[in-house]
């Protein structure tokens, strides 16, 4: 119903709407309308009210507006349910709670900013206003061992979106960093909850540094990170970015569900900046150096070591040297 209130205001294109009109259009009492308007304001919408109980929605083009995003989506199930927040601790945390409470596959959580954004390997993910921070709930019918394939699936969709929409030269660094000219613009954090060798749910979290000024990025990452705004010298529409990403993600995930992971992996390999590069991978406290020569279907990196032997690395932090 809250979305119906939003749509009713949205349909009036910024004009004031008397509350009595909303009552007759939506057939709910005034008090419910006031409650929904209050919660929309808490979500970040700017809704102005007049003395005589008229309301108008002021569109803030700098925000991702979920009702508008939803109306532009070309998906069948990804983003049919969107939970939008001005600020949360972490969209992955919110998505995990929703998934535990039965949220359907394709539920999306988006936040304008995160107070405790999380990266891989327990790192903090700095998430100020201007980024695209979102998580998707998935319930794939596959074994837990295949979960890393979903990270590849999301990586391929993110790389395609950034390349197609902005014409940027995008690459992927194993396992899941999307790069522009060797600088990271997007990261992916996949979290899984398993049952008895089954997947209960997976949350794929995607963070894209969209309209982020580089001075908001912590100094230690400034040499290795970039943003779309920094590359393009202008702000982009984050709504279009998220919409295109969700469209691309659904198409790629459908391929995964049809058993075509090989196609996805081939696309990943074509985008990969890691394969063919000399790398150093940190696993636990060890550093392993070698040339990256491939990835396995399970997502492990294959390194050729200096003595010519091959080593499979399941997880680690990779640096191109
Ligand atoms: C990484 O490269 O280390 C992964 C970064 C993932 C960041 C995203 S932002 C949306 C979602 N919520 C989080 O707390 N993390 C992921």
Bound molecules: biotin
What's the helical proportion of residues?
25-40%
CATH class designation of the largest domain: Alpha Beta
Identify the CATH homologous superfamily of the largest domain.
Bira Bifunctional Protein, Domain 2
First CA to last CA: what distance? 54 Å
Number of strands: 15
Secondary-structure-derived class: alpha+beta
**At the third CATH level, what is the topology name of the largest domain?**
BirA Bifunctional Protein, domain 2
Instruction: Name the poorly predicted regions.
Output: none
Main attributes of the structure:
321 residues; alpha+beta; Arc Repressor Mutant, subunit A; BirA Bifunctional Protein, domain 2; SH3 type barrels; 3 domains; five-stranded antiparallel sheet; 9 helices; 33% helix; elongated; binds biotin
